[in-house]
Write a structure and sequence with these properties.
- The strands form 3 sheets. This protein has a 6-stranded mixed sheet. It has a 4-stranded antiparallel sheet with strand order 5-4-9-10, with no helix packed on it. Strands 3-6 form a two-stranded antiparallel ribbon.
- Helix content is about 15%, strand content about 30%.
- It contains 2 helices and 12 strands, in the order αβββββββαβββββ.
- The chain has one domain (about 5-165): Immunoglobulin-like.
- The chain has helices at about 5-25, 90-95; strands spanning about 25-35, 40-45, 55, 60, 65-70, 75, 80-85, 100-105, 115-120, 130-135, 145-150, 160-165.
């Protein structure tokens, strides 16, 4: 082994680690329904990376430590695509989600607290991929979602979240979202 190999090995390990971390950091929590009118609660996530990401063995955890697991073999979240994580299959049916949107029913779902909570999205390696927190204002209007305004900004920045203008979700990003039939003007 020459001295160049010795230097390149740690660099390649570091590059692989950083590349993997960059990919998982590109899946974010984009919208939550903490107080639905009829269907059950749900959470929307988005993969804004250029790579498809395998969601096998991922989970959501709240401030109290309640965890909901994505099903084994959950599937691939394609690049620039959304997934809906729901409490039950009836919620998925009632939402009438756009075709080709990944929909998953979590195992062990704990209800979203209407008086506020914190959610973390964890990878299969138990790494926190994204985190968001919300207060009682997120559930102050029954049947309205709480959505992330700018995907590039931190999920824990309270100013980056707001009530959705549409009753089924999606105001400023409506053209992208799986629950929206037409943009809100």
């Amino acid at each position: 082994m020459n001295k160049h190999s010795i230097i390149l090995l740690p660099v390649s390990i570091l590059a692989t680690f950083l590349f993997s971390a960059a990919l998982t950091a590109s899946v974010i929590i984009t919208e939550i329904m903490p107080d639905p009118e009829s269907s059950g609660e749900w959470i929307e996530i988005y993969n804004y990376s250029p790579e498809d990401i395998d969601l096998d063995s991922w989970s959501l955890i709240d401030r109290a430590g309640n965890r909901g697991y994505l099903p084994q073999n959950a599937g691939i979240l394609n690049s620039n695509s959304f997934a809906i994580l729901a409490k039950d299959s009836l919620t998925i049916i009632e939402l009438a989600i756009r075709p080709n949107t990944l929909t998953l029913v979590l195992d062990g779902w704990a209800s979203l607290n209407n008086d506020g909570d914190e959610l973390a999205l964890l990878s299969q390696h138990e790494e926190t991929v994204d985190k968001m927190s919300y207060g009682a204002e997120a559930a102050s209007v029954k049947g309205r979602t709480w959505e992330r305004i700018d995907f590039e900004k931190n999920g824990q920045d309270a100013a980056n979240w707001g009530r959705c203008a549409a009753s089924r979700g999606s105001h400023c990003r409506c053209a992208k979202q799986p629950l929206c039939s037409q943009p809100i003007e």
